[in-house]
Specification:
Elements lengths: L2 H7 L39 H5 L11 E3 L2 E3 L6 E2 L8 E2 L2 H12 L4 E2 L6 E2 L2 H8 L10 E2 L8 E2 L2 H11 L5 E2 L8 E2 L2 H11 L8 E2 L8 E2 L2 H8 L7 E2 L3 H4 L6 E2 L2 H11 L2 E2 L9 E2 L2 H23 L27 E2 L8 E2 L2 H12 L5 E2 L3 E2 L2 E2 L3 E2 L2 H11 L12 E2 L2 E2 L2 E2 L2 H6 L1 H12 L4 E2 L20 E4 L2 E4 L5 E2 L2 H12 L5 H11 L1
Antiparallel strand pairs: 1-2, 3-4, 5-6, 7-8, 9-10, 11-12, 13-14, 15-16, 17-18, 19-22, 20-21, 23-24, 24-25, 26-29, 27-28
Helix pairs in contact: 15-16
GO molecular function: DNA-binding transcription factor activity, RNA polymerase II-specific; RNA polymerase II cis-regulatory region sequence-specific DNA binding; zinc ion binding
Protein name: C2H2-type domain-containing protein
Main location: nucleus
């Protein structure tokens, strides 16, 4: 037989798969937590197939491996999430990588049409379909007269059930046999028939909560408000403690920050001055920055001197507030004034260029009403103190306005010692416009439910007694805050309002 004939009669069969013995292999994860571990296997020669096939030929399970620092055995879901509080596990590292994006917030798949981003590529593909015309949908309803098209077989099957009047969504309330073809129709039925009037389709299931919403998105946002650990304080002084501080609402967290971590000026010259809001601190720090710039300019000798007429060589007078930061320029022709805020610029234009005089003296004397008008409030106060001081009326407590009593101008000592405030408080209490704090002689309904300690006392012949409070208030809200802050007395809102109304 020739070689040609032999070559035509030879049939090559498939090589049998060589069964390898299960190995204990150590897999080390690479740069990323979710990257697929590199499997290391040894090469076997074809001649060793008989020896290998006799060892565990019927088992396809892999040996234990180390994934993300943990020893994992078996084939089912060995890739586990390492984020705290998450017990998710997956069979493939790619699925784990997709899941970890929900923790990190990474959304790498971006729509080129509307710039929306997604965690998974499949989500992006489903979104891209919304930008395509309805004619591009491949699945068509086969019912006569219906030409609706769909992207998925699931949506097509659900649509076909509507043609046969199938209503899988049944009402679960007792003695109600209504059923609907859509879940939204069932929710609307329950809200309108089995709930109080005005109830919307999406109801909150939290205990003692009767709120309802028109959309599921609004409901999900509302449900977060029931989470007592929704917000946490990230200030270093709070994070270093053993137990973190949690708050259920954003306002509660902000209130905690204002009390425990107030905005503080870092400059030593301010001696730890605090502000009620970050906005006030930023405005204050801007003043420090401008002062530093001005001091640096003076040290370099960049200050301008007057060079006109007899004032040659004389240092230019520094304006109040400094020269730095005057970014608001008056645009009236011939006016070169500049200001540090838009409010100051607007006031200048109204008073100087529009000749507006909004502050009018209302004092009535022997010669009738004064009627003089001024462009600025401080000029009106100066006028009242100078021109009408001899016409004071001590019998009329209502004549005290803004710290200046008609016929009397308080000195700086009176303001610092509190005499000016005490006189104003006495006047408003006498006219019934305000009430004085009764502490320490509290009576019903001002019953204390909090702590009462650390109050100032004054020495008397009979011993020490608590000092009487001299503050006066016109609003129950201010009075209630005063009791809590100054006297550590916690009183209900309704009790305070009732007490104030009874005293006015």
């Amino acid at each position: 037989m020739s070689a040609t004939e032999l070559s035509g009669s030879i049939v090559l069969g498939k090589r049998k798969r060589v069964q390898r013995a299960p190995e204990l292999v150590l897999h080390l994860s690479g740069g990323s937590r979710s990257s697929s571990p590199a499997f290391t296997t040894s090469e076997h020669e074809a001649g060793e197939s008989d020896h290998v096939s006799g060892i565990g030929s019927s088992s396809k399970s892999r040996g234990p491996i180390i994934v993300n620092g943990k020893l994992v055995c078996g084939d089912q879901k060995r890739y586990r999430c390492i984020f705290a509080g998450c017990n998710k596990a997956y069979k493939k590292p790619s699925r784990l990588q997709e899941h970890e994006r929900s923790h990190t917030g990474e959304r790498p798949f971006v729509c080129s049409t509307c710039s929306k981003s997604y965690l998974r590529e499949s989500h992006l593909q489903a979104h891209v379909r919304t930008h395509m015309p309805a004619s591009a949908r491949p699945l068509v309803c086969q019912v006569d007269g219906c030409e609706k098209r769909f992207w998925t077989n699931q949506h097509l099957k659900f649509h076909e059930k509507l043609h046969f009047d199938e209503k899988p969504f049944k009402c679960t309330h007792a003695e109600c046999e209504r059923s609907y073809s859509k879940q939204s129709q069932l929710r609307a039925h329950i809200a309108s028939v089995h709930c109080p009037p005005g109830t919307k389709s999406f109801r909150c299931e939290h205990s003692n909560c009767e709120k309802s919403f028109a959309t599921s998105q609004k409901l999900r946002a509302h449900v977060k408000t029931h989470d007592e650990k929704r917000y946490t304080c990230v200030h270093p002084s709070c994070t270093q403690t053993t137990e973190l501080m949690y708050f259920g609402t954003w306002s509660a967290l902000q209130s905690h920050n204002r009390k425990a971590h107030p905005a503080t000026c870092p400059y030593a010259a301010c001696s730890g001055r605090t502000f009620s809001a970050q906005k006030g601190l930023r405005a204050h720090l801007k003043i420090h920055e401008q002062r530093e710039i001005e001091d640096a300019l003076l040290l370099r000798g960049d200050g301008e001197d007057c060079e006109d007429g007899d004032d040659v060589g004389r240092e230019r007078k520094r304006r109040r507030g400094g020269e730095v930061g005057r970014d608001w320029m008056c645009d009236v022709a011939g006016c070169e004034k500049d200001f540090k805020s838009n409010k100051a610029l607007m006031t200048h234009q109204k008073v100087t260029h529009l000749q507006r005089r909004d502050f009018v003296c209302t004092h009535i004397g022997e010669d009738g009403a004064c009627g003089l008008a001024f462009g600025y409030k401080h000029l009106l106060q100066r006028h009242v103190a100078k021109m009408h001081a001899h016409q004071s009326t001590d019998d009329d407590p209502a004549a005290i306005v803004g710290g200046v009593e008609e016929g009397h101008q308080y000195s700086a000592i009176d303001v610092l010692t509190g005499k000016a405030y005490a006189d104003r408080a006495s006047a408003t209490v006498a006219t019934g416009r305000s009430v004085r704090c009764p502490f320490p002689d509290l009576s019903a309904p001002l019953v204390s439910t909090g702590r009462m300690h650390g109050h100032e006392t004054e020495a008397t012949e009979g011993g020490a007694r608590e000092r009487t409070c001299e503050y006066a208030f016109t609003r129950a809200y201010d009075f209630r805050r005063h009791l809590a802050a100054a006297h550590n007395v916690d009183v209900g809102k309704e009790d305070v309002e009732k007490w104030v109304l009874g005293r006015k």
